[in-house]
Amino acid sequence: MSRELLSETKFYNSKDNCLLYVKSKASDIYWDNHWNSDNLKRDIQESQSPLVVKYTKKYLTRASKLLEGGCGKGQNVYLLNKLGFRVVGIDYAEGTVRSINSCMPELDIRLGDVRRLPFEDDSFNGYWSLGVIEHFYEGYQPIMSEMYRVLKPGGILFMTVPTMSFMRKAKSKLGLYPKWSNNPVEIDNFYQFALDPNLIITNFQNNGFKLIEKKPYDGFKGFKDEVGFLRGLLQSIYDSSFILNKIFRKIVDLLTVKFSSHMTLFIFKKIK
Smallest Cα–Cα separation from 72: which of 87, 91, 58? Predict the structure, then answer.
């Protein structure tokens, strides 16, 4: 069992130009606890994913077969199935998968590991990976290899990842993050990376993919996470459902997304 630190700490690794977030190890048990719900069916059916809908419809035709690797509660599997796509979800959080299979057996959601997918080569027209590859301390090479293997030639990979924004790069150059030192306790409690977007593109293009679109997003979250003295206030606004706070979040997001985006959507095509 990992030893949990008291609060999240971000470290900078200059070798790979990335941040490492340390607090709780992103294990299957962690995700089962994180996704635990009193009404899982409602959570699945009421969730909205405009980004997933927009880009799936942009690049794939209805009835295309998709995989969501690391599908969590399965909201996107449900949503895309409703729109006419054929979607399979896979996740390694056994309790969550079991709960989904119990309350919504019509969804094709399976227990499995994105590093060793139980599917034949060239099985899918599309693959969604929403905030998955950054949680593996040993790196994402095995996940990337499996993405390539199961996609058909010309298949589309949609992938979101926390990335090094302009703001994070500036803070790292100013020495505002502690340096990563391979401390065993910190490794044991590793949660995720914020990765260099240029290095992601290079790695995927060197492994049979071609970048066709890149979209940074979630500027408000990236801003509030990196501005320590305002974080308490901004976090309360971020968590609020009050309409004026929602409007404020939207405005700040539009103003900050180019320099403080938390996430980037990468869209690749399998070309080999």
Answer: 91
Residues whose CB falls within 8 Å of the CB of residue 55, separated by 6 or more in sequence, listed in order: 158, 213, 265, 267
CA 98 to chain centre: 22
Neighbours of 251 (CB within 10 A): 11
Nearest one of 66, 245, 230 to 260, comparing CA atoms: 230
**Mean pLDDT, the chain, as a whole number?**
94
What CA–CA distance (Å, rounded) separates 243 from 226?
Answer: 24
| 262 contacts 219 by C-beta, under 8 angstroms | yes
Distance CA 67, CA 128 (A): 6
List C-alpha distances in Å: 30 to 6, 41, 148, 198, 247. 16, 20, 28, 30, 32
What is the distance between the alpha carbons of residues 201 and 205, in angstroms, rounded to a whole number? Answer: 6
Cα 23 to chain centroid distance, Å, stands at 17
- Tell me the average pLDDT across 47-62: 95
Instruction: Give the tens place of pLDDT for each residue, 126-169.
Output: 999 999 999 999 999 999 999 999 999 999 999 999 999 999 99
Q: Which H helix or E strand runs over 268? A: strand 263-270
Q: Mapping DSSP to helix (H, G, I), strand (E, B) and coil, where does residue 63 land?
A: coil
Phi, psi of 81 (to 5 degrees): -60, -40
Contact 171/198 with Cβ under 8 angstroms?
A: no
